[in-house]
Design goal:
Elements: H1 11-21, H2 27-33, H3 37-40, E1 42-45, E2 48-51, H4 59-71, H5 74-82, E3 111-112, E4 115-116, H6 117-137, E5 150-154, H7 161-170, E6 179-183, H8 188-195, E7 203-208, H9 215-234, H10 242-252, E8 253-257, H11 260-266, E9 273-275, H12 292-298, H13 300-319, H14 326-340, E10 345-351, H15 358-370, E11 388-390, H16 402-407, E12 414-419, E13 427-428, E14 431-432, H17 433-450, H18 454-459, H19 465-469, E15 478-483, H20 488-509, H21 520-533, H22 537-541, H23 545-557
Parallel strand pairs: 5-6, 5-7, 7-8, 8-9, 10-11, 10-12, 12-15
Antiparallel strand pairs: 1-2, 2-15, 3-4, 13-14
The structure holds 6-O-phosphono-beta-D-fructofuranose.
6-O-phosphono-beta-D-fructofuranose (F6P) binds next to loops.
Catalytic activity: alpha-D-glucose 6-phosphate = beta-D-fructose 6-phosphate
Subcellular location: Cytoplasm
Pathway: Carbohydrate degradation; glycolysis; D-glyceraldehyde 3-phosphate and glycerone phosphate from D-glucose: step 2/4; Carbohydrate biosynthesis; gluconeogenesis
Length: about 550
């Protein structure tokens, strides 16, 4: 694997430094002096209309950013990923989530490390479809013969955030009378509350774990199994014999994993397990078998549409020159803001309540991918990396944190995502509510970009100290992503867009965006500390002073 190119040593970086030192953001002036600005900076990305015009860039800055992508080898690295090179260097793995959404019969065929990737991907998809159809039609039944009404996905991180986010986003497509719940946290409140009102006879658990070693997931899976047995035994549906219990698990548990041996060891029949491969990173896995809960609830057709959306964006990235390549441009803008304009965070603000888990999903995608201090050859990074992603749907955020974005001292680039057509076309007082909603999206991006000058405030009759308080500086950068409707295809496009933005930034920073060693230490320490909470005095004594004091507090106050 070639060494990362130090972005700071490129001529583009020198140019960008020069732009930065003379930089005077002036969106009002730029819009006034360049009638073509919106046209030049608006793009069609599959079904998405992407307007970059309200970003803090001039033509010259943009040209240097595109040059930066060239000089740091973004296209070459992307090609290496698609060809199955082991660009995940620390785990010596290929990175092939893009293969999960190649259409059947894609050509040329993709064979990597001796594996016929296309064949294997299609085989699992077909198995998922067939299983989902059985559940949806009622052919698959619980141990007492009842149809499944609720699917409970047990997983965490990439084995939870994607399916959960998409289910919430596409709920209107759930057409088979089957709903889904998502249990992730090892906090027992999660599974207790999410199973409290469920009927074991109509519940199907999907244990989703790439490694099938994750403490949270295996603990919750055991709790779910105990809950199932207890419920069925209490109603007399089964006895407590080993045979009855095994039979109940066979009817109410399926699994998704790359480690089918561990699935079997847990007691789930591998005939009811769906596999994927080590070249799919957890946070890139929602379009693998990890999406099984979606195929069941939304249907195979909707899931294929989702994959088609992903693929459309993959094709755009692979075949579009850098200067028109939307994910690359958005990644470059993030680099500009992070490394040159000192932005620390990035807001994602969907004007779609159904996308209320989108920011949480993106947090894993972006921050687990690019929250790194070393490059892919182990050398220290030469730039700042990994901005903090956060957000909430509008208009709720408007009444919470937008104040800081409008008038605070920090630069917070923000992505606004909106849809022309509502999933629920309601009116109130004779007015289209979705229209009122979208007026807020348009108003916010306008206010952030162009602000309100002191003269404008005064012209409205305000005087004295209030003038400053009511002045909006503007020049707060936003990207507007607009689409006709929140469909499975459009959602696939949106997710793939952010995957490729993340990748672009990772390449420029020289990062391996596909490992996550930073989560390991906490996992190891939790296992060491757990015995101390169970009363092991030696384990408690081995801790640092602060941890010991916290354990003492725990001991003194635990009452249940
Ligand atoms: O702890 C981080 C992580 O490894 C994520 O990358 C992953 O998505 C999550 O844990 C869950 O892992 P698994 O699917 O193997 O249970």
């Amino acid at each position: 694997m070639s060494a990362p190119i130090d972005a700071t040593a490129t001529s583009a970086w020198t140019e960008l430094d020069a732009h930065r030192s003379a930089f005077q953001p002036d969106l009002r002036g730029w819009f006034a002096s360049d009638p073509d600005r919106v046209g030049k900076l608006s793009f069609t990305l599959a079904d998405l209309h992407v307007d970059l015009s309200k970003n803090l860039v001039t033509d010259a800055v943009l040209a240097s950013l595109v040059k930066l992508a060239e000089e740091t080898g973004v296209p070459e690295r992307y090609a290496a990923m698609l060809e199955g090179d082991h660009i995940n260097t620390t785990e010596d793995r290929a990175v092939l989530h893009t293969a999960l959404r190649r259409p059947p019969g894609a050509s040329p065929a993709l064979t990597v490390d001796g594996q016929d990737v296309d064949h294997d991907v299609q085989a699992v998809l077909e198995a998922m479809d067939a299983f989902a159809e059985r559940v949806r039609s009622g052919d698959w039944r619980g141990v007492t013969g009842k149809k499944v009404e609720t699917v409970v996905n047990i997983g965490i991180g990439g084995s939870d955030l994607g399916p959960y986010m998409i289910f919430e986003a596409l709920k209107p497509y759930a057409d088979a009378g089957i709903t889904a719940r998502f249990v992730s946290n090892i906090d027992p409140a999660d599974i207790a509350l999410k199973t409290a009102d469920l009927d074991p006879e109509t519940t199907l658990f999907i244990v989703a774990s790439k490694t099938f070693t994750t403490l949270e997931t295996l603990t919750n899976a055991r709790l779910a199994r105990d809950w199932l047995w207890a419920g069925l035994e209490a109603s007399g549906a089964i006895s407590s014999s080993d045979d009855d219990r095994t039979n109940a698990v066979a009817h109410h548990f399926v699994a998704v994993s790359t480690a089918l041996d561990k699935v079997a060891a847990f007691g789930i029949d591998t005939a009811n397990a769906f596999g994927f491969w080590d070249w799919v990173g957890g946070r890139y896995s929602v379009d693998s078998a990890i999406g099984l809960s979606l195929v069941i609830t939304l249907g195979p057709e909707a899931f294929r549409e989702l994959l088609a959306g992903f693929h459309a964006v993959d094709e755009h990235v692979a075949n579009t020159p850098l200067a028109q390549n939307v994910p690359v441009l958005m990644g470059l803008l993030n680099v500009w803001y992070t490394n040159f304009l000192d932005a620390q965070t990035h807001a994602v603000l969907p004007y779609a309540q159904q996308l209320h888990r989108f920011a949480a999903y993106l947090q894993q995608l972006t921050m687990e991918s690019n929250g790194k201090s070393v490059r892919w050859d182990g050398s220290p990074v030469t730039t700042g990396t990994g901005e903090v992603f956060w957000g909430e749907p509008g208009t709720n955020g408007q009444h919470a944190f937008y104040q800081l974005i409008h008038q605070g001292t920090r630069l917070i680039p923000a992505d606004f995502i909106a849809f022309v057509n509502p999933a629920f076309p309601l009116s109130s007082d004779g007015r289209d509510v979705h229209g009122l909603f979208l007026a807020n999206f348009l108003a916010q991006t306008k206010a952030l970009a162009f602000g309100k000058t002191a003269e404008e405030v005064e012209a409205e009759g305000t005087t004295g100290a209030l003038v400053a308080a009511r002045t909006f500086p503007g020049n707060r950068p936003t990207t507007s992503i607009f689409a006709a409707a929140l469909t499975p295809r459009v959602l696939g496009e949106l997710i793939a867009l952010y995957e490729h933005i993340t990748f672009t930034q990772g390449v420029i920073w020289g990062i391996n965006s596909f490992d996550q060693w930073g989560v390991e230490l906490g996992k190891q320490l939790a296992l060491q500390i757990a015995p101390a909470l169970e009363g092991d005095a030696d384990a408690a004594a081995a801790q640092d002073a602060s941890t010991r004091a916290l354990l003492e507090y725990y001991k003194a106050n635990r009452t249940v």
